[in-house]
Structure formats: structure tokens, C-alpha cells
Amino acid sequence: MDNTMIVLLVSGAACGLMIAIYVTALVIAKKSIFPGSGSPISMAQTLLSSIHVASQHLLGVLVITLICVLMLQKVVTAEAGLPLLSAVAGYLLAKTFKDVNISPTRKTRTDDAEA
Asked: Domain boundaries in the chain?
């Protein structure tokens, strides 16, 4: 088995694991959300944000895999491929689920007075 096949298998397993974890989290969240737990708009926005972040992570893994395979096949040199790998990896590490707002917003007294 050559190095290209190993990279493809590992990245495929990583993508499959990410998808399985995300789907499991959605199923658990679906069962734990009860009527009246939040506004539907807020919950929909949270779901869309989490899908956005998860898809960015999956795309990042696929881009890293593509660059690695191209470097192993000697299509892209290390001088060109390694900066791209570090840029994509840095972006993925910086983009976290903290960017997703999952906390319910509550009105404060000043919000009630202004309304």
C-alpha cells in the first residue's frame, strides 16, 4: 500500500468520524429540545451556524487531503504545498464552535423599558 492510499484512507476515516459525531450530536439535541425551550428562529439560526462550521471543517479536511496527495505525487512541490497546508490548518483551528451562539438570549430590564 503506497503513501497516497494511506492518506486517502485516513482522511476518509476522519471525515466519516466527523460526520458520525455531528449526526449523533444532532440526534441527541433533537431529543433534548422540548417545546418552549427557545424561539424557533434562534434555534434555526443555531442549527444553520453549526452546519456552516461543520461543513467548513469537512471541506478543510478535504483540501488538506488534496494538497497532501498532490505533494506525494510530486505534482506540487513542498515549497508551495506546505504554506497552503499551514494556512488551511490554521484557519480550521481558529474556526471553532465557539462562533456558534447556542446560549438563549434573555431580555433585561433595559430591553423591556426600550420596547
From this structure: 59-98
